[in-house]
Specification:
The structure is a homodimer of 458-residue chains. With 458 residues, the first copy, chain A, is mainly alpha-helical. Chain A has two domains: 298 residues, no CATH class; 66 residues, no CATH class. Chain A is 58% helix and 8% strand. In chain A, the strands form five sheets. A three-stranded antiparallel beta sheet of chain A has the order 9-11-10. In chain A, helix 2 runs antiparallel to helix 3, helix 9 runs antiparallel to helix 12 and helix 10 packs parallel to helix 17. Chain A is globular and about 80 Å long. Chain A starts with 6 loop residues before the first helix and ends in a 6-residue tail after the last helix. About 6% of the residues of chain A have low confidence. Chains A and B meet through helix 3, helix 4, helix 7 and helix 11 of A and helix 3, helix 4, helix 7 and helix 11 of B. Chains A, B: Belongs to the glycosyltransferase 4 family. Chains A, B: InterPro entries: Glycosyl_transferase_4, GPT. Chains A, B: Keywords: Endoplasmic reticulum, Glycosyltransferase, Magnesium, Membrane, Metal-binding, Transferase, Transmembrane, Transmembrane helix. Chains A, B: It is an enzyme of class 2 (transferase).
């Protein structure tokens, strides 16, 4: 990878950055529009992330953050852990964005010593739809989100440095989410859930989960981060799946903010909040994807997967749409359940489960695990059943013993279904699947919600 | 260094930790007392930091974070950058502490979607002196402090990893302080300073510094972090000087909170805030000092110096006593001014300016810089003047040319004044000097303030 930007790149990035700065400068006129500012900041995030990935690649390689791409003919070393750059840019953009949605003039005077004497009324601050400004008490939530994201970056870098063991790794997101949970506890503290209609006779209309709600949020962050981390291994898939999920959430947010939705809507704030977190994420991820797409010029590292998963978890929790988020992560969830037999060693798990690169054809083929010791009878029968359901490719010898099978990942399953293909076509196929599942999920969420709840909150 | 805790250590740490947990559990009775909780958390911070430094030392060395102690007969390799462990523990303790000062019951009910409908009155929350709870809008300041500290740790680790150049390094604290400045801008935004009496005819009573106030805060963080980083190089000095400064600020805070001070006092909040940030810092620093004191078993790394300086800067800014902080950093400031001729290459600067270790006597002697090329006339005359003022040790040849001098650091100056001594006696001497200067500074601040201001805010 070149360490400098080409002339075309420099001019394109510069003009995009200048345009964004222009838009930002314009928001100083009149009341300022946080959503417009957020879009401009996302453009700036894209530009700076794109340039920094180029400039810092060599420094990362010198310090040992490098790896070889197993699925290529020529295996150059390329920079690893570039997701950390992406995350740092994102965090700084979120910080710089603060003055737009959270207006400073709420404090009008002070007697010194940190006391506020005159406060403006909330109504004087919230002015119209796109000009919407948050009440000041949302600032703490926003800052706690940044804190949790920064924590996951710190811990992710720690993981990339010290190679933490797998079973400890899984818990990293649960540690990083603590700042947000603590602030949620002191700042909001609502742990009640709306009960689905069929269960209302038993549980009432609202059910207070109490501390279990915090466990739920921690589990959500573990699930979100790790499920993205598990669906990985081919060029671009980590970043691109995150982008698809982010785009779907943005689509859902926009449904609540569009001119067709009655205003003021109780969930407007939450979905604006969600957009402010996601738009810059899309900016930095696009810049990373352009370097990580087939053929990859950089690797993203575990840091990126943790970080992306945490962005979604934080967004879902503070935007109050955690159930929708779970719907959007269904393909990842399926991949996790599907991987479970190997992850929990019911079936032997080889060191790598990446698809096999066939150097002759240049295509990826599904990788296989050989069973040197015969499998226990019930497990072997399950594998045969999966084979019949076309959910696995199992090889059986003359005596009916299972001797090998495809590895248990959705990536290999895709290759079982559609045969060998080039790395980018494989990634595109999986992304199409992710998009289709997500759109279906959103459709179900908004159309079918009335079957189990008395009203859709849209 | 042993990687495990001895039996005595284990039992001592365990019993201290249990006592702290007991105290914490007690604060759940009745209204809870944040200051007591803060002290208990600081105890927990000490225990966990002490144990983690032991447990993680080997892992750090394996990943290349290690160094040799130049001032010892036997130069084993020992872990480096242990300040990062210290900082991580500190940050998590600050997060866990949040529910104590910031009470959750302020939000009593919600209509969903993140809106608060019923709020309790502030008076119902603030109850008495030690039971003092912060109004909820201070939470944003507190979180921004944590964010800035976490940023400096991230950037500090980046520095330790990538060996950033000296002139870029200096600016790291200014980048890390940005989150706090942005939140200060939206959350408080007061940039007026009280004008000293002699200047009032020209400037009025209050002078609005405007954006210069933000520059001032950024400069304060640069000064605070780097001045601690420059006064370094012998076992324990980085941590111990930070402890002395922290103790002096705590002493100053207690002056405002003691039963002799009239209550309610406008600065009570600020000084409680300051205590909450400093007590856990003292906890983790003590644990680090016990490993870093002569003969050092670990090194602290630049990360610690940045981190400690940032704690003071954040504390001074949010506690509204930045001028007092500058008074307490005077010895560091003197060291910086004194070092300037070498730092800015007016006089040659050797790679290392540590005191010279005399292996025969086991004592440290002041290290010297040889001037191979003759110095410019005015500079040579200045050095001779400094020699006459006993502020430098200069060697002159028969023709009156300066051929060598002691290095320009306060550590070497101390050795010039008091002759060779063992490393720990040198550190103790410098710490005594720091303490004396600090106490004098506080005395001046409270006794002499009336000469330039119409009233002491105490």
């Amino acid at each position: 990878m070149s360490t400098t930007l080409s002339r075309t790149e420099t001019y394109s990035l510069l003009s995009l950055a200048l345009a964004c700065v222009g838009v930002l400068a314009n928001t100083f006129q009149g009341d300022g529009e946080p959503l417009i500012a957020s879009i401009a900041f996302s453009g700036l995030a894209f530009c700076s992330c794109y340039a920094l990935i180029r400039w810092l690649g060599q420094a990362f390689m010198r310090r040992g953050f490098k790896g070889k791409d197993m699925s290529k003919l020529k295996q150059h070393e390329i920079p690893e852990t570039m997701g950390a750059v992406c995350a740092m840019v994102y965090l700084f953009i979120l910080v710089f964005f603060i003055p737009w949605p959270f207006y400073k003039d709420i404090v009008a005077a002070t007697s010194g010593g940190g006391n506020r004497d005159v406060m403006k009324d909330l109504d004087a601050v919230e002015t119209g739809r796109l000009l919407h400004r948050f009440p000041h008490n949302k600032l703490a939530s926003y800052l706690s989100a940044i804190l949790s994201l920064q924590s996951i970056v710190l811990l992710g870098i720690g993981d990339d440095l010290f190679d933490i063991r797998w079973r400890h790794k899984v818990l990293i997101p649960a540690i990083a989410v603590i700042p947000m949970l603590v602030v949620y506890f002191v700042d909001f503290g609502v742990t009640k859930m709306v009960v689905p209609t069929p269960l209302r006779p038993y549980l009432g209309e609202l059910f207070d989960l109490g501390w279990l709600y915090y466990v739920y949020m921690a589990l959500l962050s573990i699930f979100s981060s790790n499920s993205i981390n598990i669906l990985a291994g081919i060029n671009g898939i980590e970043v691109a799946q995150s982008l698809v999920i982010a785009a779907l959430i943005v689509f859902n947010d926009v449904l609540y903010l569009s001119p067709f939705t009655p205003y003021p809507h109780p969930a407007t704030d939450s979905h604006l909040f969600s957009l402010y977190l996601l738009l810059p994420f899309i900016g930095v991820s696009l810049a990373l994807l352009m370097h990580n797409w087939y053929p990859a010029k950089v690797f993203v590292g575990d840091t990126y997967c943790y970080f992306a998963g945490m962005v979604f978890a934080v967004d879902g929790i503070l935007g109050h749409f955690s159930k929708t988020l779970i719907l959007l992560l269904l393909p990842q969830g399926f991949n996790f359940v599907y991987s479970a037999p190997q992850l929990f060693h019911l079936v032997p798990c080889p060191r790598h489960r990446l698809p096999h690169f066939n150097a002759r054809t240049g295509l990826l083929e599904c990788s296989r695990v050989e069973f040197k010791k015969p499998l226990a009878r019930p497990i072997a029968e399950c594998l045969k059943l999966l084979h019949r359901l076309r959910l696995l490719d199992v090889e059986v010898d003359g005596e009916g013993n299972v001797v090998s099978s495809s590895n248990f990942t959705i990536i290999n399953l895709w290759l079982v279904w559609f045969g060998p293909m080039r790395e980018d076509r494989l990634a595109l196929g999986l992304l199409g699947f992710q998009t289709a599942c997500g759109l279906l999920g959103l459709f179900i969420r908004h159309r079918m919600a009335l079957l189990v709840f008395t009203q859709d909150n849209w």
